[in-house]
């Protein structure tokens, strides 16, 4: 039932976006299509991507094995969502196996999971339904507030700063973009592949 509801909600959002997009001229749409096709062809296969993600999450898991549990601090792990926690480009709505396993490992060792994303806050409830449906548990989620125009790195750095303000020590930050990881406020960062920005 959750899966059906999620897909229905997402289709509603997509339909709204498509309706707004009809205002764009036919000429502009036609010019954009070839670029999209070329980009899609340039991406590695789904299997290759999963393998390369797993190579990074294995390193993160080994690090957390040594770092946690730690009763001296309130440990937290920060995860990006699109093309990190979820397979947004390859299999929308599905969890990324290596990242889900890492989140579960961290929680078992006493760390809180926080999601930090540039998704607009209007999509926060749909995002939470999706994350819950695929098995994630978390202590907090940070989205982009309405009328916030910070660049992504500034937005996400502010979120991590707020997590620290709440008394947590961020022991690991996992994302697929430099803007997910830049700005500090994490003991270690782990970068998943983004193929020169094709997986944003």
TrEMBL record:
Instruction: Identify the keywords attached in UniProt to this record, alphabetized.
Output: Signal
Highest taxon of source: Bacteria
Q: Which SUPFAM superfamilies does the record associate with it?
A: HAD-like (SSF56784)
Q: Which Pfam families match?
A: Acid_phosphat_B
Q: Does the keyword Transcription regulation apply?
A: no
Q: What InterPro entries is this protein classified in? A: Acid_phosphat_B-like (IPR005519), HAD-like_sf (IPR036412), HAD_sf (IPR023214)
The protein's matches in Gene3D superfamilies, at most eight in alphabetical order, are given as: HAD superfamily/HAD-like (3.40.50.1000)
Keyword Cytoplasm: yes or no? no
Record's signal peptide: 1-32
Q: Which PANTHER family match?
A: ACID PHOSPHATASE-LIKE PROTEIN
Q: What is this protein called?
A: Acid phosphatase
What species is this protein from? Paractinoplanes rishiriensis
């Amino acid at each position: 039932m959750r899966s059906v509801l999620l897909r229905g909600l997402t289709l509603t959002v997509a339909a709204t976006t498509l309706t707004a997009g009809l205002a764009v001229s036919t000429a502009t749409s036609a010019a954009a299509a070839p670029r999209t096709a070329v980009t899609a062809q340039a991406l590695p296969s789904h299997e290759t991507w999963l393998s390369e993600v797993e190579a990074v999450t294995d390193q993160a898991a080994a690090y957390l094995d040594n770092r946690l549990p730690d009763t001296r601090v309130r440990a937290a792990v920060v995860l990006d969502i699109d093309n990190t926690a979820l397979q947004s480009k390859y299999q929308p709505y599905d969890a990324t196996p290596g990242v889900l396993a890492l989140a579960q490992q961290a929680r078992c060792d006493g760390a809180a999971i926080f999601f930090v994303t540039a998704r607009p806050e209007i999509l926060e409830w749909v995002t939470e339904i999706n994350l819950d449906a695929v098995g994630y548990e978390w202590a907090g989620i940070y989205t982009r507030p309405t009328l916030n125009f910070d660049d992504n790195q500034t937005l996400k750095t502010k979120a991590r700063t707020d997590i620290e303000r709440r008394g947590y020590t961020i022991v690991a930050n996992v994302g697929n973009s430099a803007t997910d990881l830049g700005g500090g406020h994490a003991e270690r960062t782990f970068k998943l592949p983004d193929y020169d920005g094709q997986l944003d």
